[in-house]
Design goal:
The protein is mainly β and 218 residues long. Helix content is 0%, strand content 61%. It has two domains: 107 residues, no CATH class; 102 residues, no CATH class. It contains no helices and 13 strands. The strands form three sheets. A nine-stranded antiparallel beta sheet has the order 1-2-3-4-5-6-9-10-13, with no helix packed on it. It has a two-stranded antiparallel sheet with strand order 7-8. The model has no long low-confidence stretch (mean pLDDT 87). One of its GO terms (cellular component) is cell outer membrane.
Length: 218
Amino acid sequence: PNLKPERAMSWEFGVDQGLFGDVATLRATYFDQRFEDLIQYTFARPNPMDPNYFNVGAATSRGMEVGADIEIGLAQASVAWTWLDTEVIDSGFESGLGGSFIEGEALLRRPSNTVTVSASAPVAASGRIHVRSLVVGSRSDRDFSTVPEVRIKLPAYHLLSFGGEWALTTLAAKGPGVSVFVQVENLLDQYYEEVLGFRAPGRQIHTGISVRFGGGSR
């Protein structure tokens, strides 16, 4: 009953700059965050009737996002890189190399580097295809299969997605219409884990029909 919600305070500063008559846009953002009252779980309760969760942890997170967008006719492309630096500043009651919060170490499952590249282009008169590449860098996790638990590094992974959309009605671009779409996630069926010991989904294929009622809404 005395558990408080986790708190976060943040600020950021960003700049966007158009180039070549706004054909291209460069953007950069710096951000800084502080997390307090992080909730921790413990097996060793001070009192058997006490809860297993306590507000004790604190951490900081800072980083930078840099990207570029380009649009030539109806073709579009973008690239973005995110650098993230996290640090535990209060480990609470945890100690040892296997803790979820280790003072001076990074937060679990936060990659230092993430890169995204995407592009889309029209196909014939009524279609559009798009592709997206995502690279997620290595990050720390906790191995619960050992006693005591130890910290490990999850390897980086690369995901590729591809999709397309084709209009079934020949109407104005922003008017009402019906279209069919196909989206393939993890196109190369890469094996990766976002959480140690739990395989993330492999190749996924989604298809369906979308209806637009006008004004760009669906």
